[in-house]
Amino acid sequence: MNPIHAKRFAETKVMTLLAPPQKVFPLLCPVREYEWVPHWHCKLLHTESGLAHKDCAFTTNLLDLGHEVWTCTRYEPPRSIEYVRFAPLGMITRLTITLGATENGGTRLIWELVFTAISDKGEEALEHLRQGRYEQTMTIIEKALSHYLRTGEMLSQVDNAW
């Protein structure tokens, strides 16, 4: 059997926020994202608590990847959360977010994303991510989350990255 090497794009983004992990972690939930992520929309498929937990599942219809199915594969409040998502167009994504306290009472978040293309359309989407879409989306996420933690309100002026 010959090994298959699907095209892959992996990136890490580090953010520092002025709120403790106990305040940041609950916002990394598909339901709570309605509070701070502009243009966010998801459909819950399974949740026992009404919020994120291990094995909860939901769908999104994001701008670049279209319909995606997500499941939470790690849930360790307030230290780490991980989602694996599948886009039928041909992309599998693993998102791992690790949180740590900073000396000034804030949070250092490490966002690790691994995108794996499993079709020609997935490879096209992967190339779009490489050409700046990933960085643009992560910049908006950081601004939106920081603004929400500072003001308690959603950032109103933002392009639709989703």
TrEMBL record:
Pfam families from the UniProt entry: Polyketide_cyc2 (PF10604)
Record InterPro entries: Polyketide_cyclase/dehydratase, START-like_dom_sf
Domain of life: Bacteria
Protein name, UniProt field: SRPBCC family protein
